[in-house]
């Protein structure tokens, strides 16, 4: 069971959750959705609202669901589920397997984008803007060399955090 709270009431360090633990970004609906792990992201205030930003490479299957839908979720999980969930959602494509089934997680469709029952924290986000990294934007040229050897630059999705759910 989840309860809704204000983003300012989140007790955990969300930067730590994204960078040092991991999250799932999920988009779609009960007729079709996909999820993927993310460890690059940001949260904060932008354009007068609490915002989550996620970075998705164009070849990722989740990209088409984020493109097609107005909402996405960013969800965080207990550490003891990391290997179980991350091992599937971080290494297999939803084009080839049912990630939720293989990872043993239960999709929930009661919001404007899916999330999973096993989450401890869920951010329900409305897309506000999309950008894209381009090589000429990198002031530090080592970023391009290190992170983009295939030149598959991330799309950047900015989402207004419309709802925050925590596991009771």
TrEMBL record:
One of its GO terms (molecular function) is FMN binding. It comes from the Bacteria. Residues 18-166 form the Flavin reductase like domain. SUPFAM superfamilies: FMN-binding split barrel (SSF50475). Belongs to the flavoredoxin family. This is NADH-FMN oxidoreductase RutF, flavin reductase (DIM6/NTAB) family. It comes from Eubacterium coprostanoligenes.
